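Q: Here's a chain of 360 amino acids. Please give me its 3D structure as tokens.
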Amino acid sequence: MNKTEPIDAETLLATPLPPVRWLIPGLLPAGLSLLAGASKAGKSWLCLQLAQGSEIWNRPTQPQTVLYLCLEDTLARIQSRLFRLTGDVVPSRLYCQTQCGCIGEGLELQIEKFLFRHPETGLVVIDTLQKVRPAESNTSAYAGDYQDMSVLKNLADSHNIALLLVHHLRKQGDVDPFQQISGSNGLMGAEDTILLLQRWRMSNTAKLLVTGRDMDSRTLHLQSENCVWQLLEEETQEEQVEKTVPAYLWQIADFLQTQCFWQGTATELLTAAGIQDIQPNQFTRKLVEHYYIVFAPRKIRYESRRTASMRQMTFICDDCDGYDDDSDTPSANTSIPKESSSLSSPSYGEVYSDKTGTAY
């Protein structure tokens, strides 16, 4: 198949294509990947652990040859780490190298020569990326980053291997942890997979955030034991989001499923559901924020409207016993349609009632 020529959708759908090659199932696919973390966070230890080709974190792996370009270490240091990691088991398919050329200045040729001699190679690790970056040019940071990454991505894709780059973080923080990765957006834009190792200084625990084109985002909670990263817990993105949901919202959803139809103020709903010590305005904010996580999957529809004296909330549970699925309205004759797009955000009060007597 000629990648430089367009292909129509009918032909594409009728053409069998090989599946994604996983070097580590659900964690490291073939393609260009970036492992980023703070200095001395344990990235190199993690790379050596990934490079051994044995089962890791309940994920079976196939034996494969690995080239590890450990460009900031000496062979003596690598030997010392391997003694601690491997014990009596010798990773015979792991090759280490401490020097190589830069991108566009011999690196690609060196890797291709190795792949020619070892066609069974599945993983090449470059530790660190900055060691193979050429001298800065006159191009913009974005253009330079994207150009360098494109060269490496083409190399990985053409040989169907995983090419893992080890990189550093900026010192300043960011709300989005992936924005802490040093470099422009061109660096991340070309990557197929990004792994971010978050470890607090002097702590033996860390989080490995993983996202990519061929996988669902997930977080692995790790603990270092004798420099070996052990898996404590693994969460998908959906599970992480669910953890942010206050427990009282699930309690209210359970209550509403027993009611079929409920109407009243936020204060009345909290009382009816047996919820204490939660402000009504706090509840209505969290209700809207997590509506599509807690209530919509249970087919609980919600609408709010302000009257002269209160903000009235109306809930209908479509799956409730006694509710007529053939009718758009329950016996109370409410006007909420079944489409979830009917959700209207309440106006948030700051207290239980204001000076005009409006209740929440």
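Q: Can you summarize the key feature?
A: The domain at 244-342 is CATH 1.10.10 (Arc Repressor Mutant, subunit A).
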